[in-house]
Design brief:
By secondary structure, the chain is α+β, with helices and mostly antiparallel strands. It has 3 domains: 52 residues; 81 residues, DNA polymerase, domain 1, CATH 1.10.150; 105 residues, Intergrase catalytic core (hpI Integrase, Chain A). 46% of the residues lie in helices and 14% in strands. The longest helix is centred in the C-terminal third of the chain and has 21 residues. It is elongated and about 90 Å long. The chain starts with a strand and ends with a helix.
Length: 278
């Protein structure tokens, strides 16, 4: 049973529980209730949660603190830099949206407002990713019996429509114009132009193109092998492809092979002038 006491002009409750980590009896209290009945009702709510196996010791943990601990324990160091950046971005949103608010006090109404505020100037894709990360955290919190309801369930995504698929890619005429411009500006001092040309003729991702070295090019058969990626964000060097199926050797246009061959020759001459050898 909870202990109800009056402290000055206010009422306080104290609920006793056994700490599962130590086996020792502990208590959780809260004061400041104007009426005894309010203190009894609040204590009863905590007692009910305790009867359902709630982790009482963590009932006061804030939403932001739990999310921060959750990504530290289960996400960081396990995914790509870009994915981990998203987890941290969501942490900042939670910190700003629910400053000091216990996780146990978040309900669907509060969460919906938070998500709608974010959706006002963000795309549906960003809103969906944010909600997906938080939902995963909520389900873990439920399995740990810190909360008992999924406040992310059934929320609507009111984000702004993203770009149409047709707007994400160049059409044939635009691609031809881009190719012509790039080929006119090819220069050994502007490697980016060669990277763009390679992207046009291969369709490879930038991290794959940045990992191409001369030994990956078969000049005779006009082929390029894409078997690794380059970490251009943190510049930590080469890394594995996303999946084994991403490793491939592709046939490429003679125009690309010719341009890359010219670059190779120009680099060799430059290296010889400087006294370098490949």
């Amino acid at each position: 049973m909870a202990e109800i006491k009056k402290r000055g002009s206010k009422w306080q409750y104290r609920v006793f529980y056994t700490d599962p980590a130590t086996g020792k009896q502990k208590s959780k209290s809260k004061s400041g209730f104007k009426k005894k009945t309010d203190a009894i009702a609040a204590a009863r709510e905590l007692e009910v949660d305790k009867e359902h196996g709630a982790t009482i010791s963590e009932r006061d943990m804030t939403f932001a603190d739990y999310y921060a601990q959750w990504i530290k324990d289960t996400k960081l160091g396990r995914y790509s830099y870009q994915t981990e950046t998203w987890y941290k971005r969501v942490l900042k949103l939670v910190q700003e949206g629910f400053p000091g608010v216990p996780l146990a006090q978040i309900n669907r109404r509060k969460y919906t407002k938070f998500l709608d505020d974010y959706a006002a100037d963000h795309s549906k894709e960003s809103v969906d990713k944010t909600n997906t990360f938080i939902r995963a955290m909520v389900r873990d919190a439920m399995s740990e019996r810190i909360i008992f309801t999924d406040f992310t369930a059934g929320v609507r995504n009111n984000g702004n429509p993203g770009k149409r698929e047709a707007d994400k890619y160049l059409n044939e005429n635009q691609l031809k114009k881009l190719t012509d411009v790039v080929e006119k500006h090819l220069s050994p001092t502007a490697i980016t132009t060669y990277e763009i040309l390679t992207a046009i003729y291969t369709g490879a991702r930038y991290e794959e193109i940045a990992a191409i070295t001369w030994d990956r090019i078969d000049w005779d058969h006009k082929q390029i092998t894409l078997d690794r990626a380059y970490d251009y964000v943190q510049r930590s060097g080469f890394k594995s492809m996303k999946t084994p199926n991403s490793i491939r050797t592709i046939d490429v246009s003679p125009r690309l092979i010719r341009a890359l061959s010219q670059l190779h020759t120009q680099q060799q001459k430059r290296y010889m002038q400087l006294g370098y050898r490949e």
